[in-house]
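Support reply, case 0932

Customer input (verbatim):
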Amino acid sequence: MKSKITLKEETNHMISIDVIIGCYQFDCILVCYAETEFGRTWHMVIPNWEVNCRIGKNIYYNETKIKEALEPEMRFPEEYAAIIAKVITSRLNEHDKEIDEAIIKKYFQDDKDNE
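Our regenerated output:
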């Protein structure tokens, strides 16, 4: 299956990706929906298909959510969801790496202070 997933634009709270997979071509936008002391909450949006689903940094969770979101729009969504989830999860982990490290450091510091 032919697939090409290209990063188009990236800001602090938004990642725009161009997706060509099988016979489908669409824009996929990852939007930071909320930011708390536990990290960021992300949503994947495909504007042309009115697809919006919550995603995270766990590849299995993302694959399930993306598959559910794509089912009404494409044939064989499980195959496509696996490819998209792999790329998106990797990108989110890299994008939020500094934030996640700061949260972990703060968590362990707070835990140490409470001893």
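We compared this against your earlier run and they match. Two observations from our side: Helices lie at 59-70, 77-95, 97-113. Strands lie at 3-10, 14-21, 24-36, 39-46, 51-55. Please reopen the case if you see a mismatch on your end.
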